[in-house]
Design goal:
This protein is of the alpha/beta class. Among the domains are: 107 residues, Flavocytochrome C3, Chain A, domain 1; 140 residues, Methane Monooxygenase Hydroxylase, Chain G, domain 1, CATH 1.20.58.100. Helix content is 34%, strand content 19%. The chain has a five-stranded parallel sheet with strand order 7-3-2-11-18. Strand 8 and strand 9 form a beta hairpin. Helix 1 packs parallel to helix 5, helix 6 packs across helix 16 and helix 14 runs parallel beside helix 16. The model has no long low-confidence stretch (mean pLDDT 95).
């Protein structure tokens, strides 16, 4: 298909091009610029409006400021928390370099909360232990009260301004520019403010676009988390990995899904059923309310299903914060206290909060190695929640996400700069078919002449995914979900229409483009969930309730053809010795 519109194109060339300006994108930009590369950052929102600012509880590092700690214990907890699906070389690298990452952030001006001795304040978090799970709970999460992501982004954004990094904010990336040999040459983006199209050329392009949490109707993620990077990869003929693993956070506010940080439980909050019982004593007698998130989430759902939910309909669990001293809220949980007051009119020192598990983090993404290089591509990298390194495996531990961003953002930025400086790329190197394919997709939605607004299809996709790929799944519902979503996709292509075709701040066109990306991620998630016939980490199937290491100690790979035919395959989990440590073999998880 060829576009019939002669769009004027503005060209830019950079040694390193970064798509996305959240924590991973900014950390990569800093390191690439430090390495002497010219750096361009393209983002659909300004950096301080990225989803990273919503991260609350902290960032893990074995500093030992409160209790003794060791990066090897951190790595063990992360591997165990991943339900043994995490790649052990990547996990060990991340945990070993965590203290260095914290020192970097400190030097960049991130204002961590301090204890009475002036050390960075560290709190316990779910699934964290000492002595390889045999000791006490570890105090490992470095925190800036309960607004750590916001503090980190402010520090990174202020610091990146020291370097000649060029930002293109409020640009919608349409797609990657790819040669037929899977070499990435950059991307085409649409500037909302002017309506112009821009071609960004680079031999080293880093995807840092975040996750795909918006495939669900109830999610803590920003509305911008539409899986754009994943869609770029799939349309380029590349893979996405482990899409079935979506983490549901135990404590989203009932009715809205707004996140109540795990920090609230770390500071002493307790989950209770309608009988007032601290029910986690039955499910995780050692870690209680700070067991790994998949364990806590399923326990909450079981309490509700067995009739012990709270409220008139028994539909939620109560988070009881009343035992936390009032003075600790001001220092360590100010955001939680103000959020409850603003949204519920609730005084958390007197009233419990109604909570329900809510889609929170997507462990799946674009498969990438420790340098961020994307599987099967040349000149393309991926970091952050868009990537699957895989340091989170089947379940992410709280406070490892911010760590993932900065550790691999730094490494990938440095690697891309080292290999990308002064690499020549001319306009004539760009094949015309790569441009025409992208413009044709743009025109298809820009001039869609149906009668149904794209918002309807977005909402429909989200509710269907919530229904068919929620916390507990089974083969019959997954089959039905795939069929139903395919029908919605076909209907969208036939019946979707926009109110106008302007290129100036056309929100309908943005929604149409994002919704197509969302549909692709929803279907990839359903296909991967149907393919994996076991329960592991955040992927729970009632028809296959046990973990099956003999068959499924592997990553799932999903590919998608131009006709939207999805194909599933597997990739071995990396369990070799690394960082001087022997492989850890799977064992039963006990919390």
């Amino acid at each position: 298909m060829i576009s019939n519109i002669a769009y004027p194109l503005t060209y830019h060339t950079y040694d390193v091009l970064i798509i996305g300006a959240g924590g991973a994108g900014l950390r990569a930009a800093i390191e690439a610029a430090r390495g002497g590369a010219s750096v361009g950052v393209v983002s659909k929102v300004p950096p301080t409006r990225s989803h990273t600012v919503a991260a609350q509880g902290g960032i893990n590092a074995a500093l030992g400021n409160v209790t003794e700690d060791d990066w090897r214990w951190h790595a063990y907890d992360t591997i165990r928390g991943s339900d043994w699906l995490g790649d052990q070389d990547a996990i060990r690298y991340m945990c070993k370099h965590a203290p260095e990452a914290i020192r970097d952030l400190e030097q960049m001006g991130v204002p961590f909360t301090r204890d009475d001795q002036g050390n960075i304040y560290q709190r316990p978090y779910g699934g964290m232990s000492t002595h390889y799970g045999k000791g006490d709970v570890a105090f490992r999460a470095c925190a800036a009260a309960d607004r750590t992501g916001d503090a980190m982004m402010t520090g990174l954004y202020d610091y990146v301004k020291r370097y000649p990094v060029t930002f293109y904010n409020e640009f919608i990336v349409l797609d990657l520019l790819m040669r037929e040999n899977n070499q990435c040459l950059g991307c085409i983006a649409w500037e909302l403010d002017s309506g112009a199209l821009h071609v960004f050329l680079s031999l080293h392009t880093i995807i840092a676009t975040g996750g795909y949490g918006q495939i669900f109707a109830s999610a803590t993620s920003s509305s911008t988390c539409t899986g754009d990077g994943n869609a770029f990869a799939l349309r380029a003929g590349l893979y996405v990995q482990d899409m079935e693993f979506v983490q549901f956070h135990p404590t989203g506010l009932y009715g809205s899904g707004v996140l109540i940080s795990e920090a609230a439980r770390a500071e002493g909050g307790i989950l209770r059923n309608k009988l007032g019982e601290r029910f986690m004593e039955r499910y995780a007698p050692n870690y209680l309310d700070l067991a790994s998130r998949d364990v806590v989430t399923r326990a909450m759902i079981q309490e509700i299903r067995e009739g012990r939910g709270c409220g008139a309909e028994g539909a939620y669990i109560e988070l009881d914060l009343r035992a936390i001293p009032a003075e600790r809220f001001a220092t360590y949980l100010p955001g939680t206290q103000s959020l409850a007051k603003e949204l519920l009119g609730c005084d958390v020192t007197r009233d419990p909060l109604p909570v329900i598990p809510t889609a929170h983090y997507t462990m799946g993404g674009i498969p990438a190695d420790l340098d961020g290089k994307v599987l099967g591509a040349q000149g393309l990298y991926c970091i952050g929640e868009a990537a699957c390194a895989s340091v989170h495996g089947a379940n992410r531990l709280g406070c490892n996400s911010l760590l993932d961003l900065v550790v691999f953002g730094k490494r990938t930025g440095a690697y891309a700069a080292q290999h990308g400086k002064r690499a020549s790329l001319k306009h004539s190197d760009l094949p015309s078919y790569a441009v025409e394919k992208i413009l044709a997709r743009l025109d298809g939605w820009r001039y869609a002449h149906g009668s149904i607004d794209p918002d309807w299809f977005r909402t429909r996709t989200q509710h269907l995914t919530q229904s068919y790929a929620g916390i507990i799944r089974d083969g019959m519902s997954l089959n039905e979900g795939i069929t139903t979503l395919e029908d919605v996709r076909t209907h969208m292509h036939d019946a979707c229409g926009l109110h106008h075709s302007t290129m100036l701040w056309n929100n309908g066109l943005v929604t149409a483009l994002e919704t197509e990306n969302l549909m692709m991620q929803s279907l990839a998630t359903l296909h991967a969930a149907r393919f994996r016939t076991e329960s592991r980490g955040a992927h729970a199937r009632s028809d296959y309730p046990a973990r099956n290491d003999d068959q499924w100690l592997v990553h799932t790979l999903i590919a998608c053809s131009e006709e939207w035919d999805f194909a599933c395959s597997t990739l071995a989990v990396r369990m070799d010795a690394s960082e001087g440590e022997a492989p850890l073999m799977p064992e039963a998880r006990h919390y």
